[in-house]
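Exercise 7. Predict the structure of Apoptosis inducing factor BLCAP from Austrofundulus limnaeus.
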Amino acid sequence: MYCLQWLLPVLLIPKPLNPALWFNHSMFMGFYLLSFLLERKPCTICALVFLAALFLICYSCWGNCFLYHCQDAVLPDAAHDPAIIGT
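Solution. The predicted structure, encoded as C-alpha cells:
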C-alpha cells in the first residue's frame, strides 16, 4: 500500500470556491492521476481502493468530487462573496 500515499492527497485537495477554476482544477487532477498511473504503475489493490473511494465521494455528492459539480450540492456562503470571486 506504499503507492496509496501518493493517491490519497488527490481526495483531500479541496475544490476551489471560484466556479471559473473548477475546469482547471479537474484538468490538473486528471493529468496528475494519468501521469501517476503511467509513471508509478500502482498495484491493483491500491488502484481499486482509490477508485472505490473516488466513486463513493462522487456518488454521494459531498462536494469534493473533482470530476463534476453535483446540481443538488449547495455552494459555500463564501462562493457568493464578490471579493473572493473577483480574485
